[in-house]
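Re: that backbone. Tokens:
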């Protein structure tokens, strides 16, 4: 460990208790999405960041833009600290969380520490990473070591809705133009790939009729049943495919929602199906969508009086390496191995996250953050979501030391 390493590590340790209190403050501020009224969380997060001495830019999202994304309100926060001439590194984490649901043994907003774990909704996904990134930057500022570049914090609030009015908006509007990005990973795995996700709605339309004379109508539910059979056969086919990316098994297709019909004594004139299609990095997202639309068209053609309209609800493209990712991933993996005391390589994860927005802008990106080694251990999106308390300081140390390597004047 070099002298600069020691100084930065000491700066992280000096604020370890403060970082835990910062995290608890965020967890105790509800930011459920849905419903997605997340501007109040940004007010609290900005105040917490300003208490650390950071200048915080507030970028409110227009109400109509928030509504189009299925949210009520959102404000993106940006902190910039320039150490000197050099690359810009963005550290992105989101403050919105899924609703708590049932099954909790502790208050979802309590940030209670039990047997060495902090428990609370969002503590892993990804409010702990807001704390990790903020205190990693603070450690570098406190340490006063020479660096060549700029570090930015991107605190967004729409990852659970797709990230289109968070990171995607910051990049599209030129609010940030990073050279590298480190995005919340919710575990200490170094992630360089994740699945994409396609949500499609199929509206199956027929013609209603009295149940006493079904021959005078066109049964949308009968056609929807045929569509379901075809979709499940497609899902079975996908289940037999395997991705070549470590950590990702293969593609999947799930029918997650069905609604329709008028009454028990009426031939249904409309049925809607909602589809979740997970797209592995090996696949082409357009081809995956085309295959589903072709199935719907075939079913509609086989049933007299039936039309099926397909509507894309969401398309999150897969995340994977771009030029420059190897260097960033190598730095983070080496520091993670050193701090965690075990070999940490690179892997993929089957979920989808905001990292893809940065690589779609050709920004080398990896996912890394606070938590246990896997999302399952963290109870991510489940009851009693949690992180090991001591991992907050460890994750902060990894990020701070990685930034030290990435922005070292000697590395230019």
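Recovered sequence:
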């Amino acid at each position: 460990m070099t002298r600069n390493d020691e100084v930065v590590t000491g700066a992280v340790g000096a604020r370890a208790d403060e970082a835990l209190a910062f995290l608890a403050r965020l967890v105790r501020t509800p930011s459920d999405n849905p419903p997605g009224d997340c501007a109040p969380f940004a007010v609290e997060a900005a105040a917490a960041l300003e208490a650390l001495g950071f200048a915080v830019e507030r970028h409110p999202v227009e109400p109509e833009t928030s509504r189009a994304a299925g949210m009520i309100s959102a404000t993106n926060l940006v902190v910039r600290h320039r150490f000197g001439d050099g690359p810009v590194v963005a550290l992105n984490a989101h403050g919105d969380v899924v609703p708590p649901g049932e099954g909790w043994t502790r208050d979802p907003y309590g940030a209670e520490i039990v047997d060495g774990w902090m428990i609370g909704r969002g503590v892993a996904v990804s409010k702990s990473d807001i704390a990790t990134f903020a205190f990693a930057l603070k450690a570098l500022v406190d340490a006063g070591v020479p660096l060549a570049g700029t570090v930015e914090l991107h605190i967004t609030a729409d990852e659970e809705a797709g990230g289109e009015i968070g990171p995607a908006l910051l990049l599209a509007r030129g609010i940030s133009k990073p050279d590298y990005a480190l995005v919340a990973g919710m575990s200490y795995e170094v992630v360089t790939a994740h699945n994409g996700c396609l949500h499609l709605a199929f509206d199956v339309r027929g013609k209603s009729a009295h149940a006493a004379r079904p021959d005078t109508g066109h049964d949308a539910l009968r056609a929807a049943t045929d569509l379901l059979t075809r979709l499940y056969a497609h899902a079975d086919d996908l289940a037999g495919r395997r991705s070549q990316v470590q950590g990702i098994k293969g593609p999947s297709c799930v029918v997650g929602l069905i609604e329709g019909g008028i009454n028990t004594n009426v031939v249904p004139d409309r049925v809607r199906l909602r589809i979740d299609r997970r797209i592995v990095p090996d696949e082409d997202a357009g081809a995956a969508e085309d295959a589903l639309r072709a199935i719907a068209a075939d079913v509609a053609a086989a049933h007299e009086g039936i039309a099926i309209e397909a509507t894309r609800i969401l398309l999150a493209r897969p995340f994977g390496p771009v030029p420059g990712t190897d260097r960033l991933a190598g730095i983070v993996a080496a520091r993670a191995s050193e701090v965690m005391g075990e070999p940490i390589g690179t892997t993929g994860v089957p979920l989808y996250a905001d990292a893809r927005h940065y690589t779609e802008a050709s920004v080398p990106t990896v996912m890394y953050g606070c938590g246990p080694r896997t999302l399952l251990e963290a109870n991510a999106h489940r009851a009693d979501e949690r992180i090991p308390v001591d991992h907050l300081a460890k994750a902060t140390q990894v990020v701070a030391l990685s930034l030290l390597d990435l922005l070292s004047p000697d590395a230019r």
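The CA atoms of residues 194 and 349 lie 5 Å apart. Residues 123-143 form the longest helix (21 residues).
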